[in-house]
Specification:
Layout (H helix, E strand, L loop, with lengths): L3 E8 L5 H9 L2 H5 L4 E8 L5 E8 L2 H9 L1 H10 L8 E5 L4
Antiparallel strand pairs: 1-3, 1-4, 2-3
């Protein structure tokens, strides 16, 4: 199986950035404990209201299991009301 790199971006609704960051930070600890998670980081951008996840998974199957996990579905479900639209998820392929 090949590793899967992910960059995911969320855009907070006006005035909801701090609430969104606090909610999404609840994903860090349980996700890092998941099988196949090599790293899982959350960053706030210098641009207001933007947050990014930087992730590395052992395989697409591990990423899919993460997306189906109860902590992910619960927190992302709550985050929908705080975001301008759906989270943008990018699976990356290194350019050599």
């Amino acid at each position: 199986m090949s590793e899967v790199r992910v960059i995911a971006r969320a855009v907070a609704r006006e005035g909801k950035a701090d609430e969104l960051k606090a909610l999404l930070s609840g994903l860090i600890k349980p996700t890092r404990a998941e099988a196949g998670c090599k790293f899982y980081e959350l960053f706030a951008s210098n641009l207001p209201g933007l947050v990014y996840f930087n992730e590395l998974w052992e395989s697409k199957a591990h990423l899919d299991a993460h997306a189906a996990s109860s902590h992910f579905t619960e927190i992302i479900g709550k985050a929908k009301d705080l975001m301008q639209g759906p989270m943008e998820i990018n699976l990356l392929e290194e350019i050599r």
